[in-house]
């Protein structure tokens, strides 16, 4: 069920038609970043106050990684929950500022510490460079749990869009010695299949924000060659098995080219015995959680993600 397009989402779409200077795929990655950075403040609401925010650099496999650490109001001083948040942006755009609002919501609503890495972007750094930065940030959270005030057994991973893709892959990697264990994965309209053949790419190819042409442009900048498309670390829906992955919350926007692959991923997790809470946001468009100034559902989606995370913890006790 699609539902009528949300009034706030419609307003955002109308603003995009009037104010976007160019489509991302018609310019360079650097031009896309300039346009994206200029647009983000127009869509985000007033940023919530959190207990504290710290910017620092950590060691990564290919050089330092800038991270932003948020402590939410009410977060325990010791052995509290921790969240690795991976921002969206098609692996090409996005940074610590573009998703600051979402990280603050998670920190306060989850009474937790959130760590968001400014992972390397394509095409300057193609797959798996950004993924390696994300995995390194998870390792930092586990090894520095005492300093961060978190319990290494209570670390979840979250992300939106391309960040949801990275979060899903990090959660799969955590099943083995490739990474510390993950307690939950919170995926907001994730990209799970780089083949881009799902029917939602046809239904919503134009007119709903993220277009099929833009998504191809993002994908083609991220992968090294066509073989990467079938690699489960790019397309987690293509993993042989999803068994023993962390319990998952999956948010789907009904008017989104990624809707079908996100739904398919949630169903595959369920089929493979993973606990899943899937929430379809009828009337919403891709990226709506980053549009809190106009879309009331934005903060509510984070509220529901946190509630699911808590329910997973309660079930594990």
Question: Could you explain the architecture of this structure?
Answer:
- One of its GO terms (molecular function) is hydrolase activity.
- The active site is at 161.
- It comes from Rhizobium tubonense.
- Belongs to the 'GDXG' lipolytic enzyme family.
- Residues 83-289 form the Alpha/beta hydrolase fold-3 domain.
- Strands 1-2-4-3-5-6-7-8 form an 8-stranded mixed β-sheet, with helices on both faces.
- The chain has a single domain (7-316), classed as Rossmann fold (3-Layer(aba) Sandwich).
- By secondary structure, the protein is of the alpha/beta class.
- Helix 3 (100-109) crosses helix 10 and helix 4 packs across helix 6 (162-173).
- It has helices at residues 7-19, 29-43, 100-109, 129-143, 145-148, 162-173, 200-203, 212-222, 259-271, 297-316, and strands at residues 52-58, 65-71, 80-86, 113-117, 150-160, 184-188, 248-255, 276-285.
- The protein is globular and about 50 Å long.
- It is built from 10 helices and 8 strands.
- It starts with 6 loop residues before the first helix and ends with a helix.
Give keywords.
AB_hydrolase_3, Lipase_GDXG_put_SER_AS, hydrolase activity, hydrolase, Lipase, alpha/beta, 317 residues, globular
List strands and helices in order, with pairings:
Layout: H1 7-19, H2 29-43, E1 52-58, E2 65-71, E3 80-86, H3 100-109, E4 113-117, H4 129-143, H5 145-148, E5 150-160, H6 162-173, E6 184-188, H7 200-203, H8 212-222, E7 248-255, H9 259-271, E8 276-285, H10 297-316
Parallel strand pairs: 3-4, 3-5, 5-6, 6-7, 7-8
Antiparallel strand pairs: 1-2, 2-4
